[in-house]
Amino acid sequence: MDAKPWRERVREEDELVEQLQLLAAESAKRRAEALREGVDELGSVAEVARELGKSWNAVYNALKKQEKRLPGGTGGATTE
What's the sign of the alpha-carbon dihedral 47, 34, 77, 38? Predict the structure, then answer.
């Protein structure tokens, strides 16, 4: 059984959740950058989605989500 007080355990878990959220956000940003490169190379979100075996909506939404986080909210995703 854990000898740490519950308040300390909660505080530690909160810190871990914050770290994991930061890591997930950074990963999503890098993934969107890679997807954007794929769109530049293949010409469209649909082609990237086909190449990855994913729906075009999944690729489009991943790009859009990161565009909203960029200053000015601009990006180069196309849905052609």
Answer: negative
Whole-model pTM: value is 0.74
Percent of the chain with pLDDT over 70: 84
Report which residue type is found at 5: P
Whether residue 39 contacts residue 48, with contact meaning beta carbons closer than 8 Å, is answered with yes
Cβ neighbours of residue 44 closer than 8 Å, sequence gap 6 or more: 78, 79, 80
Instruction: Enter the tokens of residue 29.
Output: 């940003």
Per-residue pLDDT at 13 exceeds 70: yes
Structure tokens at 31: 């993934």
The alpha carbon of 58 is separated from its chain's Cα centroid by a whole number of angstroms, namely 11
Q: Is 80:46 a contact under the CB 8 Å cutoff?
A: yes
